[in-house]
Amino acid sequence: MGKHKPDYSRHLLMGDYVIVVNAGKVEVTGNPSALKTYYRHTGYVGHLRSKPQAELLVERPDRVIEKAVKGMLPGTRLGRQMFRRLKVYRGDSHPHEAQVNEGTGARVAARSASQTAAASPTKRRPTYGHREEAIAAHATAEALVEQAQIAADPVAEEVPAVAQKAASVAKRRTPKQKTASATTDVPKKPRAPRKKAES
């Protein structure tokens, strides 16, 4: 159900799967094993099938555990979704090894290697993605324009137009450089205080 998670909400499916193995080794003691009967319906009229618990434990022990867990879950849509996340297997092997052992193989080694590389003393300064992309786009556009001007074949007439358009888009995205002008060097006059209106 995910009650151990800090973001647990009882109306949401929290993403926990439960894998039960060795269902064939389940033993039930006392009277219930002799008295309890499991029912199922085939879908045809009058085809209600019944089986005592002792027989079902021999034939399908996983079905006994599934029925027990299903009885503990709510009978709502959420309960049905939760029940689908229960996986019961008779033996000790199951096909979910990759999910259970996730993070113990090559991925962990790669992740730890990248973390050690990130923790090395040569740290890069943080880059701001949109600015770096714009500068790179501008540089590639300029290179395309230069290549088109050098080439003398008829196809080169179409390339400069595309390259110039890319360059203009890249110029719009690059941050503008401040230029010193004569107007900015002159100090502004202080404003005179406003006179209060007489009433």
List the helices and strands and how they pair.
Blueprint: E1 18-20, H1 32-35, E2 37-41, E3 48-52, H2 53-59, H3 61-72, H4 77-84, E4 86-88, H5 97-100, H6 106-118, H7 129-150, H8 158-173, H9 182-185
Parallel strand pairs: 1-4
Antiparallel strand pairs: 2-3
Mean pLDDT: 77
The number of strands is 4
What's the N-to-C terminus distance? 74 Å
Examine the secondary-structure arrangement and name the CATH architecture of the domain at 18-100. Alpha-Beta Complex
Q: What is the C-level CATH assignment of the domain at 18-100?
A: Alpha Beta
> Structural class given helices, strands, pairing?
mainly alpha
Our count of helices gives 9
Shape: elongated
As a percent range, the share of helical residues equals 40-55%
In N-to-C order, the SSE pattern is EHEEHHHEHHHHH
Characterize the biggest β-sheet.
2 strands, parallel
Radius of gyration: 36 Å
User: Which fold name is given in CATH as the topology of the domain at 18-100?
Assistant: Ribosomal Protein L13p, Chain: A
CATH superfamily of the domain at 18-100: Ribosomal protein L13
Low-confidence stretches are none
Proportion of residues in β-strands = 5-15%
Question: Any overview of this molecule?
Answer:
By secondary structure, the chain is mainly alpha-helical. Among the domains are: 18-100, Alpha-Beta Complex (Ribosomal Protein L13p, Chain: A); 129-174. The protein is built from nine helices and four strands; from the N terminus they run βαββαααβααααα. The protein has helices spanning 32-35, 53-59, 61-72, 77-84, 97-100, 106-118, 129-150, 158-173, 182-185; strands at residues 18-20, 37-41, 48-52, 86-88. The strands form two sheets. The chain has a two-stranded parallel ribbon. The protein has a two-stranded antiparallel ribbon with strand order 2-3. The chain is elongated and about 100 Å long.
